[in-house]
Amino acid sequence: MADFEVLAGIHQGLFLVLLIVMLLPTMMANQLVFLPTKRAFISSARITLCFSWSALFVFAGHLVMTWVLFESFGWLYIKDKLLGFLPFIFVPLLCCLLSTFPRLWELAGKGSRESRQSLVDTEYTRILLHVKNVRHAKAISPNLDDTLDAESRGDASCPELLVPLQASVLGCLIALFLQVFFPAVTLEPSILFLAWGVFLAGVSLLWIRQSWKHQYHSTAENWVKPRRLHRFIRFAAFLLMTAFIATIWGNQAMLASRLSDHSPLRGQNQDDHALPDFVFPITASAQSMPSTGILGSVDESTEPNKGKPDRTFSLSAQKTSVRQVSGKTVEAWTLNGQYPGPELRMKQGELVEITLENKDISEGIDIHWHGMQTPASDNRIAKGEKSVYRFRAEQTGTYWYHSHQQIPGQVVNGLFGALVIEPSEATATGAPIRDIAMIHHKDDKAGATLNGSHTRMHKTIASGTTVRLRFINAENAPVSYLLQGTPFQVVAIDGTEVNEPNLIANQALQPGAGGRYDIQFTMPNRPVLFAPAANQHDKGLLLSPDGSEDAVPFIDAELSVFDPARYGSPIATPFDLSSHFDREYQLLIDGQYGFYNGQFERLSTVNGDLLPDTRMILEEGDLIKLTFVNRSFKDQSIYLHGHHMLILSRDGKKVTGSPWWTDTLQIAPGETYEVAFRANNPGASMEESLPKGETAFGMAIPLVYEEQQQ
Q1: Which of 103, 248, 589, 647 would bridge 660 by S-S if both were Cys, CB 3.0 to 4.6 A apart?
Q2: In a 3-state reduction of DSSP, which class is residue 113?
Q3: Number of neighbours of residue 37 by Cβ within 10 angstroms
Q4: What angle do CA 507, 626, 372 make, to 5 degrees?
């Protein structure tokens, strides 16, 4: 498949190129009336015509790129371009083709015979004067017959000639504006109608203005070219008025974007780049909530389980200095003085009680059990307070926990850790294995770390031992790791076992933000290295059977990326692409500039919207189908709270391997996914419980359960 970022980048860049190319003939055509001689007039008209044809060819290239995008990625990737942006350019260019081009052709050829005859007469006069020894200065004196007359000025200033060119420039400006600020404009008809209103009003004003100028240039007997200072003042006044209108619009947009003081979203940052880590927008379908519905979310704590807990943990959050294996000391927010926090292991079916104490985090903390269907509390634990979490570990697999208050800051600083639920003793089979949880994280102080270490770690494992590495990506972007030295199996994805995993080798593992891969292999009689693909030399985990620290050979070749859609063997699933879905949502992910909470930022939106203006409506028991279309230029991570979704297809191709169940889906630019899930985890109001910074690990989907009528 073609590179989406390249094609889409060229397509967007052509809007700017076309604007520049259209400006040239428009400015030259506006200057025709000021030329002093017919000779200069005809020459300039011909050059203007050439530039006009160049603009037409650029637009034709634009249409070709649109077709290539359609052929490579489908209708949804060009819908807004073809129906929203390009008509603002196509309509005035069509008028240019029907009106401006013929008139320019006529002006470029008008008087050409007279011009050629004038040149002959002038040359003949020069020869005669030279023969008569007349001074050369007289021979090159201005020819009064070559002076541009009022009729020619009238032809050069008629609205039919100039207004289509000016309208093309205006259309390019509007199309470029919509592309930058409203990429999903077809889903916002009010914006589209307003844009057409501005376009038609602008063209009308240009026509009225040019009609007045045409009348003046055609009839003025003592016509004088306006002075440059006068034209500069008019141009400066136009720029000032435009800036004034833009300032008013920007101020209103900024005020409208501010979140209320009591909003749980206040304090979030939707910027893609202002914060280096853990900043993603929460977005969902643009469908609004019915007035009869009651909001509900997936994150309200249920009634605590009664009885004595089978397993207890205590977590104490505090700011401290952490000394790493390399001897480097970093400032971190820790749990039990550790960075990352302690690994929590439990058995399936156990009643778990976790006590969380906030010693000195003034911003407040809370814990979210990432990937688990156990609802999390939304209660903020203030400095000096404690809270007790109780839940039954119904699932098995690899998960992790992190602070649910102001995620962009708190997780970056270290309030997170691994959580593993092992099968119960009754269901466990096979010989004991060496089970190691590895959590990747990145912050500004230590850079990329694995289990808190920014240098290579070493472990001794006897040859023949079965090893299970539980790899957790706690960064806000996909990461690539390599396992070198032995074939391996990917036995679980996001806590769900893979059916009949086959042995693979020399494939990069690339879990998305917040995603988890469990890999398993038999320890060979040689070293095995698990390390980042970008830095194999001094990071990662080195396993060896004899305790030696000799590294395995590095892989310099660019490896293919492990593909869950084609891995393992298929088995029956509760639903698939042929199932009847109670509700279907299409989510178009775009990148645009705009205001969020009073700040002008680069935003990621779904269907042109941001929280708190979007929500997804469903009822308990509904079978929901979602179609994600990433039209932005960055990877987007989708995290579905409290549910696991089944990946049905990618880029129109059905998943053929083991059923791909996941709670975190990484969508690359230009990718389209169809997923489905059962709405079986209702909770409290999303607007009441949504934590600050929930955007940390991708686009979480706010699920709003309707109250079922009794």
Answers
A1: 647
A2: helix
A3: 15
A4: 65
